[in-house]
């Protein structure tokens, strides 16, 4: 029903920047504007963790403590895309980054549990980000 495709990953030196993109597509009723969007990541040997989330209308954004002040999530309605601008990258940011979509048509609170991966309905295939020293 909904497809998410990430892009923009790659190899970057510590202190550098990358911008991840996630394009959203689906059937006509699965409109981008009805979904909150999140970014998650998973490093080798570690559990998946939340990175950032943005509400369906873009008015609210949330960040994991580990990326606050360095990463910025944004969305573009016209392009049906969500972005993750990553600055001041650290070695520990190395991971596969996943885009996820969470249906908000039921009016549920996103602020309450934006970080909960199990609440998201669709996932992309991931894009690798590697930060080198």
Give the strand tally.
11
Structural class: mainly beta
Gap between N and C termini: 40 Å
From the alpha-carbon coordinates, what is the Rg to the nearest angstrom? 14 Å
Described by strand count, sense and barrel closure, the largest sheet is:
7 strands, mixed
Estimate the global geometry from the Cα principal axes: globular
The ordered H/E elements are EEEEEEEEEEE
Query: Taking all residues together, what is the mean pLDDT?
Result: 95
Report the β-strand fraction as a percent range: over 45%
Bin the helical content.
under 10%
Total of helices? 0
Residue windows where pLDDT falls under 50 for at least 5 positions: none
Task: Please characterize this protein's 3D structure.
The chain is mainly β and 133 residues long. The chain contains no helices and eleven strands. Strand 7 and strand 8 form a beta hairpin. The protein is globular. The N and C termini lie far apart (40 Å).
């Amino acid at each position: 029903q909904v497809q998410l495709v990430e892009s923009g990953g790659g190899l970057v030196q510590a202190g550098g920047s990358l911008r991840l993109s996630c394009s959203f597509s689906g059937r006509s009723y699965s409109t981008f504007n009805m979904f909150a969007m999140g970014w998650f990541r998973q490093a080798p040997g570690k559990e998946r963790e939340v990175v950032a989330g943005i509400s369906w209308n873009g008015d609210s954004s949330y960040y994991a403590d580990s990326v606050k002040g360095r990463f910025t999530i944004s969305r573009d309605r016209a392009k049906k895309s969500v972005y993750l601008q990553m600055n001041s990258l650290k070695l520990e940011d190395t991971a596969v980054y996943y885009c996820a979509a969470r249906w908000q048509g039921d009016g549920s609170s996103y602020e309450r549990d934006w970080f909960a991966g199990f609440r998201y309905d669709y996932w992309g295939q991931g894009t690798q980000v590697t930060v080198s020293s």
